[in-house]
Specification:
Number of strands: 7
Largest sheet: 5 strands, mixed, barrel
Shape: globular
CATH architecture: Beta Barrel
Order of helices and strands: EEEEHEEE
CATH superfamily: Nucleic acid-binding proteins
Helix content: under 10%
Structural class: mainly beta
CATH class: Mainly Beta
Number of domains: 1
Distance between the termini: 38 Å
Oligomer: single chain
Radius of gyration: 18 Å
Amino acid sequence: MANLNKVMLIGNLTADPEVRTTPRGTSLTELRLAVNRVTGGPNEGERREETTFLDVTCWGRLGEIAAQYLSKGRPVFIEGRLQMDSWEDKQSGQKRSRIRIIAENMQLLAGGRDGAASPAPRAGNYSGNYSGGYRQGNGAPAGGSQAPAQNSAPMPMEEDDDIPF
């Protein structure tokens, strides 16, 4: 039986991104995301909103872009996978765990808490698919080795790109 570990979220950052570097020199950016869900209550016309707070980890260049262009309140689309972290609490000795999202693709969305769009990079994608997102990975086209659709926008010339990759 096949397995699938895929998460797609749209939410707002609850804090500015936190950038760290591993001992081997790889950059790591932590995001804290709030995702809202609006539901109807048992009575007609009643509306409830529940918020889920999630930890998102972005590695390498994807994390550098997140740190450069995201800030508290900014909406973002994250596509990634779930990962379970387990550790032993040093103070109590209890086993602890949490689930985090490892970002594999990120798309910056317009607007923020004040509704104004902050400066964002021109649309681009690590995979070579000109869809407006940034993909973590090996540069393979999104969805496998398929050629881009004929009506897709052309890739910007490297010298025209204002974001160094």
